[in-house]
Design a protein that fits this description.
It contains 17 helices and 14 strands. It has 461 residues and is an alpha/beta fold. The chain is globular and about 60 Å long. Bound molecules: pyridoxal-5'-phosphate.
């Protein structure tokens, strides 16, 4: 039974052929890849749901904007165009581009780490954010509501901060040891789950009370605003831009991977509300690390495309279609009994692999096992978000356990149709039917930092 859906709010002007290679070939390639789909060539993938980061389609307006790129090293016209859009959306005084989100992180986060023993607290740190916090010599502490971990139970804002825990954490460590509060919106690692405005407001109030800086890690701030409009009382008549602005008012610093809600293939944003001193410090560091402050690692043409993409991402028809694609895929899986993080969030369907393959222990990476089986089944590439990604505890060096052993089926923006999503759904459902045959994995090579990208593994037994 097919669910009804509304057609894509665009027509296709350019196509990129994809093809499905044979199952025998996939078996061989996955073994060569060390059972890590990051090592596959994209041409050997039929439908690529590895990430929504930089993988979306640009609009005709964005392609046209590329031609206006001003590649001047300093004072590029394209910088000023992008700056005006960022200031318009955020209401902040200062903007510096970065080559992508992690570029913004590496420049800004160390500025807030003033001494040893400091920590950032977030509803949930994204993996590169966690890595940059640790590289800066601080700890990354997650503080999400408990409902987030009950994948089968409905909660409209599973990305929310646990407010009591937040306060307790600050008291326990001492406010002088907290480098900042990072609001990750949407909460990527928890399933692209939104955070309510009420929760963001309460979090910001706690931060103010203790005099702590508030950062928005806002790769998907527009998607979060869409959920606020849909699910939170008092917002249904507000525009996405109005809701986004209300969000930015709560923070001091905005870091963004523009590869997400920037609808661009590459780019990052640093915006600072009004702290001129911090702005100057960041400006100084950005030169050796990312580039001169009017390009920060981006080409002029990419700044033009981003200036257009940021505005298109606030369009409600676009957002509604995007969220509907995610919801559709989630519903098809849920109907077939596949356990998912429910309700679906913004950019992906997250399959609960702890429930999918309960016979595989966390340190044999159940979600990675499901990801691999899905590639073999249907040529679809997904990604593990679980213990493989979390890595090892910095103190004990043990693998970190988490109730969220997830397979993320990430939907690129404006890229695939509902027919593609049906292929994905059928693939996952077929793997689910033979879930008892899935096996755990062990490392044959384990990198020290961000191991999931380049690890090599083999099936156990
Ligand atoms: C993608 C992402 C980042 C890192 O951005 P890159 O552009 O991949 O470097 C940081 N935080 C969140 C929440 C993200 O989704």
């Amino acid at each position: 039974m097919k669910k009804s859906y509304k057609a894509e709010p665009y027509r296709i002007k350019m196509v990129e052929p994809i093809r499905e290679i044979s199952k025998d070939k996939r078996i061989e390639l996955l073994e060569n890849a060390g059972y890590n789909p990051f090592a596959l060539r994209s041409e050997d993938v039929y439908i690529d749901l590895l990430t929504d980061s930089g993988t979306g389609a640009m609009s005709h307006e964005q392609w046209a904007a590329l031609m206006r790129g001003d590649e001047a090293y300093a004072g590029s016209r394209s910088f000023y165009r992008l700056e005006s859009v960022v200031k318009h959306i955020t209401g902040y005084d200062y903007f510096i581009p970065a080559h992508q989100g992690r570029g913004a992180e590496q420049v800004v986060l160390p500025k807030l780490v003033k001494h040893d023993n400091m920590a950032f607290i977030s509803n949930m740190h994204f993996d590169t954010t966690r890595a940059h916090v640790e590289i800066a010599g601080a700890r990354a502490i997650d503080c999400t509501i408990d409902e987030c971990f009950k994948t089968g139970e409905y909660h409209p804002f599973k990305g929310n901060f646990h407010l009591d825990k937040l306060r307790a954490l600050i008291d326990e460590r001492g406010k002088e040891n907290i480098a900042g509060i990072i609001m990750t919106i949407t909460n990527n690692s928890a399933g692209g789950q939104p955070v309510s405005m009420a929760n963001l407001r309460a979090t910001a109030a706690i931060a103010r009370e203790y005099g702590l800086p508030v950062l928005i890690d806002g790769a998907r701030y527009a998607e979060n605003a869409w959920f606020v409009k849909q699910r939170e009382q008092g917002y249904k008549d507000k525009s996405i831009l109005e809701i986004a602005r209300e969000t930015f008012e709560l923070a001091d610093i905005f870091l963004m991977s523009a590869k997400k809600d920037g609808l661009s293939n590459m780019g990052g944003i640093i915006a600072i509300r009004n702290d001129k001193e911090l702005y100057r410090e960041v400006q100084g560091t950005v030169v050796p690390m990312e580039g001169f402050p009017t390009y920060g690692g981006m080409s002029g043409r990419d700044m033009e495309a981003l200036a257009v993409g940021l505005q298109e991402a606030l369009d409600e028809d676009y957002l509604t279609h995007r969220m509907d694609q995610v919801r559709y895929l989630g519903e098809r899986l849920k109907e077939a009994g596949v356990p998912i993080q429910y309700p679906t969030g913004g950019h992906a369907v997250f399959v609960d692999c702890k429930a999918f393959a309960p016979h595989i222990p966390f340190d044999q990476f159940p979600a990675q096992s499901v990801v691999n089986a899905l590639y073999l089944e249907s040529g679809v590439r997904a990604v593990e978000i679980g213990s493989l990604l979390l890595g090892r505890d910095p103190d004990t060096k043990a693998n970190i356990d988490t109730p969220l052993q997830l397979m993320r089926l990430t939907i690129p923006r404006r890229t695939y149709t509902y027919a593609h999503l049906d292929v994905v759904a059928e693939g996952v459902i077929n793997v689910y039917k033979k879930r008892k045959t899935l096996r755990g994995l062990r490392f044959t090579y384990e990198p020290k930092i961000l191991r999931h990208f380049t690890a090599k593994m083999e099936p156990i037994g």
